[in-house]
Amino acid sequence: MNVDLFLRYAPRLADGVLVTAELVVLSVLIGAVIALPIALARLSGNRLLRAAAFAYGYFFRGTPLLAQVFLVYYGAGQFRAELEAVGLWTLFRDAFFCALFTFTLNTGAYQAEILRGAILAVPRGQWEAAEALGLKRPATLLKVILPQAFITALRPLGNEIILMIKASAIASVITVFDLMGVTRLAFARSFDFEVYLWAAAIYLAIVETMRRGWDRLETRLTRHLRMAP
After folding, report:
1. CB atoms near residue 82 (< 10 Å)
2. Mean pLDDT, the chain, whole residue set
3. pTM listed for this prediction
């Protein structure tokens, strides 16, 4: 191990980890906010809502994330006048925002599909029992269906977060200095392939920490199921 090289770039790598964490956390959280309405739209009786939600998910789950990032980052410049007119150009000229915007839409589509499947997995009898108790449909969804659906969705949601951690490296191709962006910079200056081994080890550590933390969360939230007779 080249200790001198590691010590030289360790602070930059630490900054890159923080940028990666910020990018992933924000995109996953904002994606979760838009995922539930999209999932409910997919289950709606309104054909227009269903079609719009399906088209959104179909595009973002059916095309490469790299292509989506390029589409937003380079495509925004084609609409500079329109974006300046509505005061959004300041955001879309920033590489970090473009990556965050794209990642949010991408993970929102996947999370919506996960939630849709989890809602459908709740037995129909739960709806009928709530109706028999006189609960309105919104109350049934909020108090009966969604809590059960979220338990079912925990494992695939954890997998989606892990995938986003690894996919965040794509942001480096549009000059975002996340962990991979800093690694590429270090390699360009040192020509020492070892820096990529450091990056791989750091990504592995982040993913393993996330996996263990999510396992504990899942264990805690489902402990009542294991205790049931």
Report:
1. 11
2. 91
3. 0.91
Tokens of residue 71, six digits: 């589409």
Residue 44: helix, strand or coil by DSSP? coil
Q: Above 60 in pLDDT, residue 170?
A: yes
CATH number at residue 204: 1.10.3720.10
Tell me if 129 sits within 8 A of 205, measured CB to CB. Answer: no
Mean pLDDT, range 210-221, rounded to an integer: 90
Instruction: Please give the structure tokens belonging to residue 161.
Output: 């977060």
If residue 52 lies in a helix (H) or strand (E), which one and from where to where? Answer: helix 47-62
Rounded Cα–Cα distance for residues 53 and 184 (Å): 37
* Tally of domains in the chain: 1
- Element of type H or E holding 60: helix 47-62
Q: Is the pLDDT of residue 229 over 80?
A: no
Locate 154 and state its tokens.
């925990």
Q: Yes or no: say if 143 and 135 are a contact pair by the CB < 8 Å rule.
A: yes
Give DSSP secondary structure letters for 61-115.
HHS-HHHHHHHHHHHGGGGHHHHHHTT-HHHHTSHHHHHHHHHHHHHHHHHHHHH
Angle at 188 between CA 183 and CA 190, to 5 degrees: 90
Range of the domain at 62: 3-227
pLDDT band at residue 6 under the 50/70/90 scheme: confident
Instruction: Return d(Cα 169, Cα 205) in angstroms, integer.
Output: 15
| Three-state SS at 176 | coil
Please give the structure tokens belonging to residue 21: 């964490």
Give percent above pLDDT 90 in the chain: 67
